[in-house]
Amino acid sequence: MTTHAMKLVTIVCEAYAKAAVTKLLRDVGAHGYTLFTVEGEGSRGRRDADIPEFTNIQIEVIVPLEVAKVMLTRLEHEFFSCYGMVAFTADVQVLRANKF
Amino acid sequence: MEILDAIRANLLSPAVLFFALGLIAALVKSDLKFPEPLYVGLTIYLLIAIGFKGGVAVSQAGLAEVWLPALAAMALGALIPLWTYPLLRYGGKLSAVDSAAIAAHYGSVSAVTFIAATNYLKAINQPFESYSTAFLAVMESPAILIGVILGKLATKQAGEGSVASLKQAMHEAIFGRSIFLLVGALVVGALCGDAGMKKVEPFFVTPFQGVLALFLLEMGIVAGRRLGDLRKVGPFLLAFGIIVPLINGALGVYLGKLTGLELGGATLLGVLSASASYIAAPAAIRISLPDANPTLYLTSSLAITFPFNITLGIPIYLELARKLYSSP
Questions:
Q1: How far separated are the first and last CA of chain A, in Å rounded?
Q2: Are B302 and B326 in contact (CB under 8 A)?
Q3: Using N-to-C axis directions, what is the helix angle for B133-154 and B177-204, rounded to 10°?
Q4: For the CA atoms of chain A, what is the radius of gyration?
């Protein structure tokens, strides 16, 4: 078994940012992502996920280090000021590097 | 006092009482909660039921009778943001983009407020034109478009990016779930006519009151959770959320009479003008004017104007219509 070092980028943001964020992921070269609905609380108050207006989503995407850098820089400049959002990275080991 | 009787009749309907129950559930922090798919499911049911019924009514009345008041409804939807924007911008000293976002919400309409109003008219045996649902359908989008344009102009975001996001907003305003379902069901209803109605009546008409009560219970919880945000929006928006619907409601009733509607239909046009969107508009505005503060527009439309309209507003617009129609 051979594993390859990659970056897991996790983005938690309001559901309305979905179209813009997934477009950004494609633009910077991510090959896919996983998305689910979540609720929680943060600096912009509670997000109960009871109606779509107050729902958060969590997007997880695994990409090479260079892609992760570009992605996070663009998130910081284009999204953080207007959308409720947090983003962070972690080191992961994957099989089949060509999938990412 | 006629108006007090009218208000009492509205407050004691199951739908409004369940709304109050939902508000209380949120205030006492009960763990009562609807899962989001149920909320979405109930919305789909209500929109299809009301759209279908309206479509059948349009097929019976004929387009010749519907087009003029429908055009007036559309014009109202487009004009309301144009007068509320300067009020918000210069009266309320709000930022340009926030003013545009709120103006779009008040020009656009709330389907549930409309449904609650038809329910109320039925309960007090006040006849109304069932094809009024068509007005609901045509009023939802124009205000969103005007609001987004105002916001873009004010923030001087010209260029390619703004055209793309205007396109996105239009897509959301025309093909977003609420307007798409409503218009779709209207067309289906108009094509099916009365024969089709007989087939779906046991599902879309008989249980309607119960489903509406269930939905308003959920809306009570949702609105109740935002009551804490009232402190953040300030006294101007609080007053705005009540006074502006009264003015728009009066405009709607008046225009309804001018375009030949009966008393019931004019009341409904008043209700539509007075209502503020909280499904179609937030989705379109969040995407096209992301700099606008959602707390301001969601709180004013959802936690101020919506509860005001379904409790006091609807009977007030009916009384306005009665006064107007009884004067020579």
A1: 17
A2: no
A3: 160
A4: 14
A51 in contact with chain B, both atoms CB, cutoff 8 A: yes
Are B194 and B58 in contact by the 8 Å Cβ rule? The answer is: no
Q: CATH number of the domain that B210 lies in?
A: 1.20.1530.20
Cross-chain residue pair B291–A81, CB shorter than 8 Å: yes
- CB count within 10 Å of CB B206 equals 9
Q: What is the pTM of this model?
A: 0.89
Q: Does B168 touch chain A (CB under 8 A)?
A: yes
Q: What is the pLDDT of residues A36-73, one digit of tens each?
A: 999 888 877 777 777 777 889 999 999 999 999 999 99
- Exposure string of B237-258, with b = 16+ CB inside 10 Å and e = fewer, is bbebbbebbbebbbbbbbbbbe
Architecture of the structural domain at A4-92: 2-Layer Sandwich (3.30)
Integer Cα distance of B29 and B25 in angstroms = 6
From chain A, pick out residues whose CB is under 8 angstroms from the CB of B294. 53
Give me the domain span that covers residue B64.
2-326
The closest of A17, A14, A20 to A37, measured between CA atoms, is A14
Number of domains forming the structure of chain B: 1
Q: For residue B166, is pLDDT > 90?
A: no
Q: Tell me if ipTM is over 0.85.
A: no
